[in-house]
Specification:
two-stranded parallel sheet; 74 residues; 2 helices; alpha+beta
Amino acid sequence: RNYRVWGLGILPEYRRKAIDVLFYKRLYETLAPKNPVYVEANYVLEDNMIMNNPIKKLGFTKAKTYRVYEKVIK
């Protein structure tokens, strides 16, 4: 009953064509009968509102934030 949604990206030429809506609809149809379920959507950048907005609308709540830091080593 635990699922991870990974790689929600859509190629630029297919963005804003409601393809993501079809994915979310199918995801709901598949998982809703298995209530209760835990679904984790990961690897979505904080500033990626195109992906974060629908995730929030689906009722996901933020549980963790992973940070990646970069430093030049000379």
